[in-house]
């Protein structure tokens, strides 16, 4: 598993992104930060492959001014 902290939804509040989630460990989990220091319930996104997502990187890989995940 890998954990990254970044503002992925553009609200200036840090979010937590976790790779290796789910039964096949091929999901990415996102905890969206709230301004009171708590987090919204985790959203889970499939990587679309059967291999485990053991690491994660976040950047604007496609130059659209949005954050992208790479596992």
TrEMBL record:
Keywords: Signal. This is VCBS repeat-containing protein. SUPFAM superfamilies: Integrin alpha N-terminal domain. Transmembrane segments: none annotated. InterPro entries: FG-GAP, Integrin_alpha_N. It holds the Pfam family FG-GAP_3. It comes from the Eukaryota.
């Amino acid at each position: 598993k890998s954990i990254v902290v970044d503002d992925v939804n553009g609200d200036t509040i840090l979010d937590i992104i976790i790779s290796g989630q789910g039964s096949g460990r091929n999901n990415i989990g996102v905890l969206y930060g709230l301004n009171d220091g708590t987090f919204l319930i985790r959203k889970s996104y499939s990587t679309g492959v059967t291999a485990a997502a053991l690491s994660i990187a976040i950047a604007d890989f496609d130059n659209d001014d949005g954050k992208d995940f790479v596992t």
